[in-house]
């Protein structure tokens, strides 16, 4: 994925339009006028919050508005190896969220249990790509 980002080969909306696919160019997260790789992976307000939490953001901040290839190259040459690994993981996670948006299902039809009973509500999230399972359990009485 980092290789594809570096070489401008991600199937982002702007790239799809250049290949003749008719899609809306606006960013689906913030409505920005063109969803290119720099915006989608680095400049979109939805992902900037993530990047701003990193210790290496000062190194990367100088590249605002530059192509993702410049960002990747700069990170590879100026960041400590561990920081570069984190950079790659975050880049991949942002891309995974773009390429595989998660559908949120919400049902608000919870009913209290009968008097003297306990009701368990359970929710599970499985992420095969990252290899983890999150389980949440809430026990309620009347």
Walkthrough of the structure:
The chain has 142 residues and is α+β, with helices and mostly antiparallel strands. It has a domain at 2-99. It is 42% helix and 14% strand. The protein contains 7 helices and 2 strands; from the N terminus they run H-H-H-H-H-H-H-E-E. It has a two-stranded antiparallel ribbon. A hairpin with a 4-residue loop joins strand 1 (118-127) and strand 2 (132-141). The model has no long low-confidence stretch (mean pLDDT 79). Residues 1-51 form the Reverse transcriptase zinc-binding domain. This is Reverse transcriptase zinc-binding domain-containing protein.
Number of distinct helices: 7
Percent range for helical residues? 40-55%
Count of β-strands: 2
Low-confidence stretches: none
Overall 3D shape: elongated
End-to-end CA span = 50 Å
- Averaged pLDDT: 79
- Element-level helix/strand string: HHHHHHHEE
Structural class: alpha+beta
Strand line-up in the sheet with most strands: 1-2
Q: What is the radius of gyration? A: 20 Å
Measured by DSSP, the beta-strand proportion falls in 5-15%
Largest sheet entry: 2 strands, antiparallel
């Amino acid at each position: 994925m980092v290789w594809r980002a570096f070489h401008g080969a991600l199937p982002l909306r702007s790239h799809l339009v250049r290949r003749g696919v008719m899609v809306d160019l606006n960013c689906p997260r913030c409505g920005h006028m063109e969803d290119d790789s720099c915006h989608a992976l680095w400049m979109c307000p939805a992902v900037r919050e993530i990047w701003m939490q990193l210790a290496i953001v000062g190194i990367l901040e100088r590249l605002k508005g530059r192509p993702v290839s410049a960002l990747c190259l700069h990170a590879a040459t100026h960041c400590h190896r561990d920081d570069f690994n984190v950079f790659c993981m975050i880049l991949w996670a942002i891309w995974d969220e773009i390429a595989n948006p998660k559908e949120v299902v919400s049902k608000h039809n919870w009913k209290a249990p009968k008097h003297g009973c306990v009701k368990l509500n359970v929710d599970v999230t499985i992420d095969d790509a990252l290899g983890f399972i999150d389980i949440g359990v809430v026990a309620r009485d009347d």
